[in-house]
Write a sequence for this structure.
């Protein structure tokens, strides 16, 4: 747990900056400053019955006074009785919507005398991710490990030019379990500015802290004042309290060994009977990175393009090799998704591929819950429970 | 020492059996040779022997109308040929066609059975070796059945 | 990540549905290690991983053997000399020929699995003196479906290479062995305590072969196999080729059995 003292954070560049305080006008000024700096600011906004990420220009675009109620298979928006700017957690989208937009042209090809030539797509906009939750900031770091080492053309330019305004969580949803995954409710790294919204006793202010040099510059351009000690303590206390309010838990101790040892656990088939293979969990997951490409050709054959889009290990096509799919049962596909996320991800990238955002729980149409399924596998660990039911001959009645 | 004993004692098939046991088996054994194109036995014929192949190649097959002899499996040095002598109705199930000039040891079925019945320890040693061969062959045929090299469309 | 256009130099029909393409490499030369693959692109249609079947000492051509089993491979095998196909790569790990130096080498393959092993065979024959016994055991569906039949005949004529071929189904003229490829292992000369084996074929055939070699005293650190999975990118990004903790495209396709672990042999992994 974090000390309840008005501590200051060291930014990634090693600079220690004192927490500042801004009000709603200051948040508007922050959005304006980012726009001035050439960023396309994308943040939460209500679209239909959900909160999605889209271009915003002022706090008026945010879901002001809105809360989300989430449960397994449930997501509802409700009115709050206050004017909180960040009184909700995460909706179905994450920032991968902007970092690896589905359906992006990867390259275009034109037929030439020497076969064909390929042309790279246009440079994407510079994004400022506004209102990123700590779990999502952690998810971006996790995706960095996938894309940055191979200098993926689509991801790298978007990510390296992006600016992140994180918002610490003070009111987790019942589907949240970031505290188990060590990714929240307090943002640790990977942000330019971190905000903590405090709304109590008639007070409404935002603690603003810089996490990078650019973040410091941006904050300096605002009419912000230094935070008083009690303001910092209050903000920290809310975040600490949020950790205790987490609706769910995922035990990570010995997780990799548990899952590797339980690949043949019959329980996967049971999950497979509930799972619709709809791919929702992979679409809403902020770390899922699997993609496929679609090659298209003009009718006259003169040009072609390759489009990259998200793919999901829940489809049969995903593992298709000539002759058939490797993972033909839904149980095997769920097993692949879960063991990849929680076990083989550790071998591949030295981290767990789950940040505890809870999206896959809320957006599963049948309410399959990753935290419950892991607990169930733990309970039915085939290393401890023998398979097969012994047949006991009934004693002859007297 | 008999010629058959000298041959048997070097065969991996009999590895682990005592000289006394091999001597008993050798008494039922006769070295034989076949020329390419010959048949050792035919489907339906009386099965009263089995063969340990020393060298060459024997194709087990059946006659398919219009197709001539079709090989299902070929046996080579170290392989055992013939099981039908062990069980009623003691008739061969396949044709055994010599692909390549072959040398083998022929065992007299009834006499071998008699020896095994008289000495169950010997019988068990022989049975372990027979079943090992049978299991391996059955597993191989199953893989063949899967037709793993077919074009998957 | 962009395919480079390469001119088709020649197309040879190997079998009913299997073709070998010779391509002019981009630029001056072309280097690859035996066992590696490329992503081959048919303009506007799609891209698939194809193993390289050429001679690693010849940098003047890219040689790839393709079986037509879907839309992309259909398009790739319908090309004519002068056409262009896109190439990315080479990608992946290679057969560790060096680990077999001073030892017996056993090459066991079935069906089209001979294609990714051909570069390894050509390489070890090029440096024949570095190895003890070299044995090639090849299983095919039928006598009419032997890949590289002429070359097999030529190799069979060599005194420094033992070649044994078996088919699942014989015909009236076939006088060779009938049965699975593992039935040839007993007839090969190798020291199970030190020999190295390269195995490539359908997964079932490879698993069966591994069991047979282990039962003969081989250890799995000297067993190498080539795995196949769906691939879209070839560089460990698209996620399709995952096999337990591995990305087959970059951690494979050639794996040392001892490094794979049981995970990889689980059903539907």
């Amino acid at each position: 747990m974090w000390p309840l003292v008005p501590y200051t954070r060291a930014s990634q560049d090693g600079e220690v900056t004192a927490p500042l305080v801004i009000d709603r006008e200051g948040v508007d000024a922050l959005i304006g400053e980012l726009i001035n700096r050439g960023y396309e600011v994308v943040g939460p906004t209500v679209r239909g019955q959900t909160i999605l990420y889209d271009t915003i220009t002022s706090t008026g675009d945010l879901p002001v006074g809105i809360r989300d109620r989430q449960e397994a298979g449930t997501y509802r928006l409700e009115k709050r009785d206050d004017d909180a700017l960040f009184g909700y957690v995460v909706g179905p989208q994450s920032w991968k919507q902007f970092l690896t937009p589905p359906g992006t042209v990867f390259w275009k090809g034109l037929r030439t005398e020497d076969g064909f030539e390929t042309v790279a797509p246009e440079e994407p906009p510079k994004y400022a991710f506004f209102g990123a939750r700590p779990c999502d900031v952690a998810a971006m770091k996790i995706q960095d490990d996938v894309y940055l080492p191979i200098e993926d053309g689509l991801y790298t330019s978007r990510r390296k030019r992006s600016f992140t305004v994180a918002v610490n969580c003070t009111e987790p949803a019942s589907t949240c379990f970031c505290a188990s995954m060590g990714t929240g409710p307090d943002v640790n790294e990977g942000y330019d500015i971190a905000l903590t919204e405090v709304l109590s006793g008639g007070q409404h202010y935002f603690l603003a802290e810089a996490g990078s040099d650019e973040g410091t510059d941006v904050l300096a351009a605002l009419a912000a004042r230094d935070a008083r000690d009690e303001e910092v303590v209050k903000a920290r206390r809310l975040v600490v309290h949020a950790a205790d309010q987490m609706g769910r838990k995922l035990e990570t101790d010995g997780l990799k060994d548990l899952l590797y040892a339980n690949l043949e656990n019959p329980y996967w088939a049971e999950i497979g009977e509930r799972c619709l293979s709809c791919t929702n969990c992979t679409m809403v997951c902020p770390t899922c990175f699997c993609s496929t490409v679609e090659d298209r050709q003009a009718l006259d054959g003169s040009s072609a393009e390759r489009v990259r889009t998200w793919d999901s290990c829940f489809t049969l096509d995903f593992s298709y090799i000539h002759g058939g799919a490797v993972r033909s049962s839904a149980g095997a596909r769920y097993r692949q998704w879960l063991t990849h996320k929680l076990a083989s991800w550790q071998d591949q990238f030295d981290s767990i591929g789950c940040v505890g955002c809870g999206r896959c729980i809320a957006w599963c149409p049948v309410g399959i819950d990753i935290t419950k399924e892991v607990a169930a596998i733990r309970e039915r660990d085939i290393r401890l429970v023998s398979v097969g039911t012994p047949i006991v001959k009934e004693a002859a009645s007297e | 020492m008999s010629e058959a004993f000298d041959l048997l004692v070097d065969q991996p098939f009999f590895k682990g059996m005592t000289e006394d046991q091999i001597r008993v088996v050798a008494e039922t054994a006769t070295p034989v040779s076949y020329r390419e194109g010959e048949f050792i036995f035919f489907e339906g014929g009386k099965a009263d022997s089995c063969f340990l192949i020393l060298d060459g190649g024997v194709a087990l097959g059946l006659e398919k109308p219009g197709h001539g002899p079709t090989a299902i499996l070929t046996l080579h040095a170290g392989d055992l040929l013939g099981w039908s002598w062990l069980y009623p109705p003691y008739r061969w199930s396949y044709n055994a066609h010599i692909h390549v000039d072959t040398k083998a040891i022929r065992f007299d079925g009834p006499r071998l059975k008699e020896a095994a019945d008289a000495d169950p320890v010997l019988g068990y040693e022989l049975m372990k070796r027979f079943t090992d061969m049978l299991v391996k062959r059955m597993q191989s045929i199953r893989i063949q059945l899967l037709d793993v090299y077919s074009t998957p469309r | 990540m962009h395919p480079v256009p390469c001119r088709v130099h020649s197309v040879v029909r190997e079998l009913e549905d299997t073709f070998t393409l010779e391509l002019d490499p981009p630029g001056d030369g072309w280097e690859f290690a035996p066992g590696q693959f490329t992503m081959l692109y048919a303009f506007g249609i799609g891209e698939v991983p194809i193993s390289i079947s050429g001679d690693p000492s010849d940098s003047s051509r890219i040689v790839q053997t393709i079986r037509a089993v879907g839309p992309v491979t259909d398009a790739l095998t319908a090309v004519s000399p002068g056409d262009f196909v896109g190439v990315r790569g080479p990608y992946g790990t290679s057969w560790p020929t060096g680990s077999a130096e001073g030892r017996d080498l056993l090459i066991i393959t079935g069906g089209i699995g001979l294609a990714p092993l051909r570069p390894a065979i050509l390489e070890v024959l090029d440096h024949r003196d570095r190895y003890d016994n070299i044995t090639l055991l090849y299983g095919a569906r039928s006598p009419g479906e032997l890949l590289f039949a002429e070359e097999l005949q030529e190799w069979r004529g060599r005194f420094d290479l033992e070649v044994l071929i078996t088919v699942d189904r014989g015909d009236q003229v076939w006088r060779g062995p009938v049965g699975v490829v593992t039935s040839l292992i007993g007839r090969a000369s190798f020291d199970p305590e030190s020999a190295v084996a390269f195995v490539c074929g359908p997964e079932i055939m490879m698993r069966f072969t591994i069991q047979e070699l282990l039962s003969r005293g081989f250890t799995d650190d000297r067993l190498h196999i080539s795995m196949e999975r769906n691939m879209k990118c070839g560089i460990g990004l698209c996620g399709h080729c995952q096999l337990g903790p591995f990305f087959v495209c970059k951690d494979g396709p050639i794996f040392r059995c001892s490094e794979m672990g049981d995970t990889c042999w689980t059903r539907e992994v």
